Inverse folding.
C-alpha cells in the first residue's frame, strides 16, 4: 500500500481563500474590517518569520493586521499594558502574543491577560475550559487544523481508535479533546508511556506531536492508519548542505508504505496553523460585532 499524501498546503490555501471571501462580506455588513493584532517581543529569528507570514496572510485575507514589535528588554508590565490596550480596542478582534517570550516575562501571566474572546490562539485557560466542557470558544490553531484534515479525509470519526503522542497544552491535549468530541476512542501517549509501539499499533488515527525527528516507525503503525505528523524537526546538515532537512516526528518514507494517508513535513499540518488563525479571527470579529459567524 502507498499512502495518499494529505496535502495540507492546498487545503490551507482553500481555507484562506474562503476566509478572505467571508472577511470581505464581514466588512460590508459591519462597516469595518476584521483585525488581528500580533505582538512580538525580541528578535527570535523563527518568531520574526512567523510574525511576518501571519501579517502577510492576514492582509491577503482582507483583514487588518496590527503588528507590535517590542524590544527584547520590554518589561512585563509594559507588555501587559499593551495587551490591555488591545483588549479595549474595538478595531482589534484577535490578539496573538508570539511565543516564546523572553525569559524575564511570565508567558502564562501574559496569556491570562488577553480577553478570552480575543484569544484567537486558544491558549487562555478560559478557552481550554470551554473546550473541555464543550462550550463555544477558541481552539488552538494547530490541533484544529489537524482535525479539519482528519474529518476531510475520514468523515465521521465515531468509534475510531485514535492515539495522540504528546500532551502539551497547545497541541496534544486540545487534539485529544477534539478527537473525543468527535466520538473517537482516544489514548494520549507521552514520554512515560510504556511500549509506545504497541499503543500506536492499535490506532486507526495517529497524531504525532512530540518534536523528535522520525521517531514513529512504520512497524508501529496499523496497516491503513491515517497519520497526522505535527512535528517539525531540522536534521543536522548532510554533506554539502547548508541547512539540514526538515522532517516530522514520523519516519515518512517507510510509514507511507503502511499508512493509508499521511501528512508530509513540510506541507502538511504546518500551513494549516495560520489558516485556522485567520478563521478564528474572523469568528471573533463576527462575535464582537454581534453577527453570526460563518461555518
Ligand atoms: P512539547 O515539547 O511541548 O511537547 C512534546 C510532547 O511529546 C510532551 O508531551 C512529551 O511528553 C512528549 N514526548 C517527548 N518525548 C517522547 C517520547 N520519547 N515518547 C513519547 N512522547 C514523548 O511540544 P509541542 O506540543 O509544542 O510540539 C510538538 C511538535 O510539534 C514540535 O516538533 C513542534 O515543533 C511541532 N509544532 C508544530 C506546529 C505547526 O505545525 N504549526 C505548531 C506547534 C508545534 P512529556 O509530557 O511526558 O514530557
Amino acid at each position: 500500500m502507498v499512502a495518499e499524501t494529505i496535502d495540507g498546503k492546498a487545503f490551507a490555501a482553500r481555507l484562506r481563500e474562503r476566509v478572505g471571501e467571508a472577511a470581505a462580506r464581514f466588512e460590508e455588513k459591519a462597516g469595518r474590517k476584521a483585525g488581528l493584532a500580533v505582538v512580538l517581543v525580541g528578535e527570535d529569528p523563527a518568531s520574526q518569520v512567523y510574525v511576518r507570514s501571519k501579517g502577510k496572510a492576514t492582509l491577503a485575507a482582507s483583514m487588518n493586521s496590527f503588528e507590535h514589535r517590542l524590544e527584547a528588554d520590554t518589561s512585563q508590565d509594559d507588555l501587559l499594558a499593551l495587551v490591555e490596550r488591545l483588549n479595549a480596542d474595538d478595531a482589534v478582534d484577535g490578539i496573538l502574543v508570539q511565543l516564546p517570550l523572553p525569559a524575564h516575562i511570565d508567558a502564562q501571566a501574559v496569556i491570562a491577560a488577553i480577553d478570552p474572546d480575543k484569544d484567537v490562539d486558544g491558549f487562555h485557560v478560559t478557552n481550554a475550559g470551554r473546550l473541555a466542557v464543550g462550550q463555544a470558544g477558541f481552539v488552538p490553531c494547530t490541533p484544529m487544523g489537524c482535525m479539519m484534515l482528519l474529518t476531510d479525509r475520514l468523515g465521521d470519526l465515531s468509534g475510531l481508535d485514535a492515539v495522540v503522542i504528546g500532551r502539551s497544552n497547545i497541541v496534544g491535549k486540545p487534539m485529544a479533546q477534539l478527537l473525543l468530541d468527535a466520538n473517537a476512542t482516544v489514548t494520549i501517549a507521552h514520554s512515560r508511556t510504556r511500549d509506545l509501539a504497541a499503543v500506536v499499533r492499535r490506532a486507526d488515527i495517529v497524531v504525532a506531536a512530540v518534536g523528535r525527528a522520525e521517531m514513529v516507525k512504520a512497524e508501529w503503525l496499523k496497516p491503513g492508519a491515517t497519520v497526522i505528523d505535527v512535528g517539525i524537526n531540522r536534521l543536522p546538515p548532510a554533506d554539502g548542505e547548508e541547512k539540514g532537512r526538515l522532517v516530522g516526528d514520523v519516519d515518512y518514507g517507510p510509514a507511507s508504505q503502511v499508512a493509508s494517508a499521511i501528512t508530509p513535513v513540510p506541507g502538511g499540518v504546518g500551513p494549516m496553523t495560520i489558516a485556522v488563525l485567520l478563521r478564528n479571527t474572523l469568528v471573533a470579529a463576527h462575535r464582537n460585532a454581534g453577527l453570526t459567524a460563518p461555518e
